[in-house]
Structure to design on (317 residues):
């Protein structure tokens, strides 16, 4: 069952009130879409472009949305595809590459940098080291209601595969972040 | 698979979320304007349309008036006074310039219209909607 606000947005859009519906969509989902793009791409400029591209595609196709899945699932599939395309364009490592060890970036941060900002960047660097499927799974999981089922639906993969991706990703991230903390003790 | 608690990671991700940058939000808000059909005063169609004006004048002077002139002798003499049958060099430069401007603005207009997702168009959208 879709959340009421999403249903209302679709009704608003299909009733012809495109601008208002789109504004609501950006208000509700904009931050999440941007964070997913930011953590997947680890580049603020690219994340902004990807967010814009995703919303253009959402706007152009919202009129054709049939309600066969949740609006958010449909939307985040578009976001996932856009991020995937951006990663391909950036000529990242092969998309099916499975890395072991997940090395952390050892870039130092200035001592006067704000801690939360520093943590956010380090976390993004750590996420960037994950294989693409794990990266997408973990960003969708953390920024999209922590629902295994929805992540599986968005990525179009079996639930157990997603659980496995997430478990590996979380373990790798914790290992990386612990190593990072250790290096500062 | 052994379930494991990742409380620290949960906390880190919740703290690491960033807000939507205001300039990006403004860009997103222009999407409905820029992906809709252009309105009457929209430059996306005025530019290509305006670019046709010199071409229309050129056609009128070089083709239409002589054609009319063939129909009526009086019009011929009037048109011959008006139209330069063989352009002297400065007029050729002017005609070439008009054609060049026409082609350049026409292609710019077509590009502008079909690339409504580009940064340039969205920047124009921000200006047009007065949101920035």
């Amino acid at each position: 069952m879709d959340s009421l606000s999403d249903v209302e947005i679709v009704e608003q859009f299909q009733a012809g009130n495109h601008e208002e519906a789109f504004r609501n969509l950006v208000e509700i989902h904009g931050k999440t879409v941007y964070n997913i793009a930011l953590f997947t791409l680890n580049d603020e400029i690219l994340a902004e472009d990807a967010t814009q591209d995703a919303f253009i595609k959402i706007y152009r196709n919202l009129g054709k949305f049939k309600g066969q899945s949740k609006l958010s699932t449909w939307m985040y599939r578009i976001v996932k595809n856009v991020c995937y395309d951006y990663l391909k364009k950036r000529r990242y490592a092969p998309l099916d590459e499975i890395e072991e060890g997940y090395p952390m970036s050892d870039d130092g941060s200035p001592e006067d940098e704000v801690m939360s900002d520093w943590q956010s960047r380090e976390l993004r660097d750590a996420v960037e080291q994950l294989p693409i499927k794990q990266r997408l799974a973990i960003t969708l999981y953390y920024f999209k209601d922590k629902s295994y089922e929805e992540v599986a639906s968005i990525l179009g993969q079996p639930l157990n595969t997603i659980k496995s991706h997430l478990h590996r990703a979380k373990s790798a991230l914790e290992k990386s972040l612990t190593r990072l903390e250790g290096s500062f003790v | 698979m052994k379930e494991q608690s990742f409380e620290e990671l949960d906390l880190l991700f919740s703290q690491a979320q960033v807000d939507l940058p205001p300039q990006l939000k403004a860009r997103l808000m222009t999407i409905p304007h820029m992906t809709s059909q252009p309105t009457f005063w929209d430059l996306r169609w005025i530019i290509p349309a305006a670019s046709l004006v010199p071409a229309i004048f050129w056609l009128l002077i070089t083709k239409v008036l002589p054609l009319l002139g063939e129909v009526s002798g009086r019009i011929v003499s009037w048109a011959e006074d008006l139209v330069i049958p063989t352009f002297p060099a400065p007029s050729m430069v002017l005609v070439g310039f008009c054609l060049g401007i026409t082609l350049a603005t026409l292609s710019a207009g077509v590009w502008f219209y079909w690339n409504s997702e580009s940064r340039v168009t969205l920047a124009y959208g921000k200006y047009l909607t007065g949101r920035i």
